[in-house]
Amino acid sequence: MNRETFSKIDYTLIFIVFLFACISFISIYNAPLDQGGRATSFAYKQIGWYVFSMIVAFLITIVDYERLKRLHWIFYGFGIIMLLGLTFAKLGLPVPLAAYVNGAWSWYNVPAAGRLQPSEFMKLFLIISLSVEIDKHNETYSIRSSHEDWLLLGKIALISLPPFALVFLQPDLGSALVMISIVVSLILVSGINLKFITGMFALIGSGIVFFFISWFKFPAIINLILASHQKDRFLAWLDPYKYQNDYGFQVLSALNSIGSGQFFNQKIDPSITIPESYNDFIFAVIGGSFGFVGAGLVILLFFIMIYRIIRTAMETHDPFGSYICTGIIGMLMFQVFENVGMTVLVMPVTGITLPFLSYGGSSLLSSLICVGLVMSVQMRTQKYMFT
Question: What pLDDT shows up at residue 387?
């Protein structure tokens, strides 16, 4: 590390993270609780998580990301072991610290730290392992044919399916969908022939069509795919007013909160209570507290952040670094779209947090690790006069 390397720090990205920290604290502080009052204690805990996560992100920034090529299987294996522990707990085996919360075995209770959600970190490990293998494959097979493309797709499937299956069985549909978005984004830039990519999107589209057909015609199939609380969320999305006193209460409360914010507001309506307002539905608190202006500013900040990461991915001359940035882009874009979408009834509720803003140590730490990885890539990018 030298002065020239530190001169490449993206201060715009750091400033966006600082703004997110301020918005997160204010929003969580103002978030109404189900039992009345405000989530003030969660707001102060969020500050502690921000301080800790920023320190971790800084340490990752100063370490050369190329070292991940030698360590990625260790991280990947650790993530799989953590997920297997939760799977064993679901099967009834005594697994220390495993916790059953909100209908899913997705957490560990860590003394003095709270809950740890392994799937948040498994998403990062998946990005790194896929990036390493795609980079190795493309170096080995500089001249590509259909055989090499199938081989790469097979490697991607072997790496992606175990964590996807373990997370889906918790059941945590939201994190499983995020993993799909990571895989899709990396396949798009992996150099695989366009016909394979077209087939992939056709397969995804067919799966969505099959799901909706099954929902209305073959409910027995849906019972095998979704847990009961996931079906309730889907019902609330399809017809929230029919279930306004039950499944649809949360999403309708979120809509009312956003509507009460109008163009610009400075105080959330105290009569509106939103379950998990400081967590999954923090965007509804932002809309209710700061209106259209505040909600629009948050979305704009996410656009700028993603643009900065895209620029880093395009400027680096190292494919491995570019792949890491691409996986992070896919992850963040899907999480933001899904979280904001479920708040305004565009998407069904899946329990995905809003990166950098929702309360939660696991989510915040994994998001800031992403920032650290991007900055590590950016600081080691060599720029040339002629490219």
Answer: 44
Q: What is the DSSP string of 165-193?
A: HHHHTTT-HHHHHHHHHHHHHHHHTTT--
- Chain-centroid distance, C-alpha 184: 14
Q: Are 240 and 248 in contact (CB under 8 A)?
A: yes
Q: How far, in Å, CA of 357 to CA of 24, rounded? A: 5
Has residue 159 got a pLDDT over 70?
yes
294 closest CA partner among 269, 274, 272, 267: 267
Q: Name the nearest CA neighbour of 277 among 352, 359, 340, 173.
A: 359
Residue-wise pLDDT for 321-358, tens only, equals 999 999 999 999 999 999 999 998 888 888 889 999 99
Q: What is the mean pLDDT of residues 20-24?
A: 94
**Which residues touch 118 (CB under 8 Å, ≥6 apart)?**
79, 82, 83, 86, 106, 108
Average pLDDT over residues 286-304: 91
Q: Where are the alpha helices (DSSP H) in the chain?
A: 3-6, 11-30, 40-62, 68-90, 118-140, 146-168, 173-188, 194-217, 219-225, 228-238, 249-261, 282-315, 319-343, 361-379
- Record the tokens describing residue 193, joined without a space: 């022939």
Nearest to 373 by CA among 330, 311, 321, 333: 321
105 contact partners, CB below 8 Å, separation of at least 6: 86, 87, 89, 90, 98, 99, 170
> For residues 183 and 181, what is the distance between their CA atoms, to the nearest angstrom?
5
| Distances, alpha carbon 338 to alpha carbons 268, 281, 300, in Å | 23, 11, 16
With H, G, I as helix, E, B as strand and everything else as coil, classify residue 106: strand
| CA angle (140 as vertex; 137, 146 as ends), nearest 5 | 65
Round to whole Å and give the CA distance between 181 and 367: 16
Q: What is the average pLDDT value for the chain, to the nearest integer?
A: 87
Task: Tell me the C-alpha distance between 119 and 86, whole Å.
Answer: 10
Could you tell me the strand order of the sheet in which 104-110 lies? 98-101, 104-110, 114-116
Tell me the whole-structure pTM to 2 decimals.
Answer: 0.91
Would you state the pLDDT for residue 5? 60
Taking only the tens place, the pLDDT of each residue in 184-197 is 999 999 988 888 88
What are the residue ranges spanned by the domains of the chain?
A: 1-57+227-365
Token pair for residue 307?
């643009």
Which pLDDT belongs to residue 230? 81
How high is the pLDDT of residue 173? 87
How far, in Å, CA of 13 to CA of 1, rounded? 20
